[in-house]
Amino acid sequence: MIDNLCEFYCLNYNNLDNKKSMTERFKKLNINCNFYNGIDHNDEKIKILYNKYNNCIYCMYGHINMIYDFYHNKNKLYGIFCEDDIVIHKDFKNKLIEIINNFKNLKLDVLLLGYLITINISNNNYIDYKNINENYYEYPDDLWGTQMYMLSRDSAKAILDIYYDGLSYMEMSLNKKLPPLSADWTITKYGKRALYFPLLVIENNQKKYNDHGQHNLHHFTFVNNYINEEYI
Prior knowledge:
Blueprint: H1 2-5, E1 6-11, H2 16-28, E2 33-36, H3 44-53, H4 56-73, E3 78-83, E4 86-88, H5 92-105, E5 110-116, E6 130-133, E7 136-138, E8 144-152, H6 153-163, H7 166-175, E9 193-196, E10 201-203, H8 212-225
Parallel strand pairs: 1-2, 1-3, 5-9
Antiparallel strand pairs: 3-8, 4-10, 5-8, 6-7, 7-9
């Protein structure tokens, strides 16, 4: 039933080692996943956008192009999009029917399944995270991460309508105070949004970050959430 409802995508950027590990991971979970190799850096639109937004534009349009393929070329009701440096909870697929039902009942546009967080929001009264249904929380604008998220067809179309033509968005941003054209600032901040906690997907803590703050956010998300026997 899940296979008839959800289409899975993984952003890979031609990293063969990551693709191999993610292929094995999805195979263990009995999930079919589409791998997307990233955008053409020679694309004229991307070159123009790169001059304003730098490297974040490659990640942004990697995600946008996966969403485009889901909406225009597939017939599933929900798309689940992830990056290729993650571990996934062993019970992930078993939880998906419940997740889909709650996504629909809560009338969500975006549901984060993997993101960056170093606190345990279920055991504390964090004012910025509003519990809306057991494991589901509304989250603030300063919550980051596109490790894995879920969209409906309607929200996928709405996101494409706003961001697919990045040049139009860039022109508007010259006259209005708009968020940067980055997945963290746009896709995950669209519409009625929520996160699932505890994390079902965690970045694997193998990437090195030169920025001290970035390092701590990614590293301690892994350290504070990862339990070896629970993740693949």
